[in-house]
Design a protein that fits this description.
The protein is of the alpha+beta class. It has 4 helices and 6 strands, in the order αββββαββαα.
């Protein structure tokens, strides 16, 4: 089973998940896809045309999540000085790259870092009735 996964499906899954979060919108500054909440980016999805390595970039301020993300194959602090603020660039085409579900978890973590509290409360309220997270 050395078949290479379709990174575009993973990227699409993260995009769809992120756009489902309260107040999330998609924009294309600099020609790349970003997902924003309250005019703040919480996920960079890059360009989907193959001109750059496929990757997802998220902001992770939780020390454990940040360390876990950086332990992924090819992962590194994001460029342009963003890495100093917790942003992690995660390539999608590396062997052993994180699965879509984990990237979605990190996208949600990134959302929680930048979203207004009222939207995080809305997210938490929506998750309570139907989805038990255990605990």
């Amino acid at each position: 089973m050395t078949e290479k996964r379709d990174w575009s499906e993973v990227r699409d899954a993260v995009r769809e998940f992120a756009l489902g979060l309260p107040g999330a919108v998609e924009e294309f500054p600099w020609g790349e896809c970003v997902i924003k909440v309250n005019k703040k980016i919480f996920v960079f999805l890059g360009v989907g045309d193959g001109s750059h390595p496929p990757a997802v970039t998220v902001k992770l301020t939780d020390a454990d999540a940040h360390a876990h993300a950086l332990s992924m194959p090819g992962a590194r602090p994001a460029g342009y000085g963003l890495g100093k603020s917790g942003w992690v660039w995660l390539p999608l085409d590396e062997e052993g790259a994180p699965p879509a579900a984990l990237l979605c978890d990190w996208a949600e973590e990134s959302y929680r870092v930048v979203a207004p509290k009222r939207l995080v409360t809305e997210l938490d309220s929506a998750a309570l009735p139907g989805e038990g997270e255990g605990g």
